[in-house]
Amino acid sequence: MVEVIPLGGIGEFGMNCMAIRFGDDMIVVDAGMGFPEESVFGVDVSIPDFDFLEEYRDNITAIILTHGHEDHLGALPYILKKFNVPVYASHFTVGLAERKLEEHGILGDVLLHRVEPREVVELGPFRVEFIRVSHSLVDCFALAIKTPVGTIIHTGDYKVDETPVIGEPIDLRTLRSYGQEGVLALLSDSTNATVPGRTPSERAVIPAFEQIFAEATGRIVVSAFASSIHRLQIVLDVAHQFGRKVCVLGRSMQKNVEIADELGYLDIPDGLRVSLGETKHMNDTEIVFLVTGSQGESRAALMQMSTQSYKGLSIEPGDTVVLSARIIPGNERSISRMIGFIYKRGANIIEEKRRLIHVSGHASQEDIKIMTEAVKPKFVVPIHGEYRMLFRHKEFVKNHLGYREENVILIENGDVLELDGERAAIIDKREIKRTFIGDSNFDEIEQDVIRERRQLANDGILTPVITINSATGELELPPEVLARGVVGFDGLNGLMAGAKDAVIEAVESASRAELADTTLLKERVRLGLKRYVQKKTGSRPVISTVVVEV
Ligand SMILES: [Zn+2]
Questions:
Q1: Is 189 a catalytic residue?
Q2: Residue segments in the chain with a per-residue pLDDT below the cut of 70
């Protein structure tokens, strides 16, 4: 019997990670990061809670990456620090992984295998074939995982693009040949399952770019995801065609252009790329800036150019700014704010709604149909997406492809889906939390720390200061209570006086043992004060007691 256990990416955007187990062997597909709402509390990213895998420590034989997007690759250093097993991925994905592992200082300690499309890797009872799929990134794979009870196809992220800008189209032939042999389950990308029709080819944006370049009378600034390698190639090509040079700005954009160029995925004509310094001596009509920051990120190049300057460069009247990326849910406000800044500076801005300057990298409903009909699985398991998307994926497959209710299985993170070749059933539900990673370094932030930061932000902090005579155990001075950010504690309405009384009462009713132990005494004061504040104001500030012994 084979078990499929998602650690992340089901019912949420990001953190894609899935364990597949047969007997004593387990492989892990993808190790992605997520971008949680807790960002206001100093959290940059979240990763799956890999502690769950601890009980399988001796069973994990490999990590397989479908492609190099952060939501599939970003947590790789963290899982490898816990479980140092070999990694299998495409050339480009390994290129991205190497940079990341280098930043974490562990590149020398891990084993990275580069695999080609159609290559087969045997991992215990699993026989994994890597199958080329199209996506917004290059060198992406679906996986055909043969197990003793049947074949599982994991699509990775994909769309059906017959005319990609870079590389070969999706390998439907190989997928169909598995379909003819018989496929037990299709684990299938749901990101665009709510979108009718076909997802356009990466090429579809070329006419709009040509038109924008033909019309622009000043500098052109294009912002796209650094990982949208097809898109970057299009911008380079159209710039070349219109006699403009390209200056690449922003750390991740420069990094990805370098890796893609080194590995031969980008075709950059000689002399096309120029440095920021060189652009200073060029005419406006000879320049394209290719920049990071399409999501309105405050530290990225485009936002800085829009508000102040990025390395001396600012948006100016006459510039044409092209936002060639989708809005990731949650970023609407920061993008809208940035667009306002760009208009204020007198530039023209072109967004997705106005011209076809962005296409999705994910399968729409008709792509899902092509994939499902090619693979002809017994069971369809929607993955990669928020619950709404998974649900609509299920509905589509039922209503348009004739699947029965019991053959389309909605799973959630932590579910253990068991497949025995005949039946599919969720046999267990494991609790899988997520781990937060801080802004400033790569350290984990404990759940308690986030809870405390949230509490501080919402309800402020109270600091009772009590001075105890260590000989008598009595209050030496009247207690002080300092309040920061606590609603109602203005010193006028009696709340402060009441809080001090609550502290006095807590100390005076303390037992001998509590008075003798500062930790116990602090907790007693905290509880007494907490009860008082909650009763009076309903708020729950952080209470941090200071005990001074004299
Ligand atoms: Zn992706």
A1: yes
A2: 38, 40, 439-440
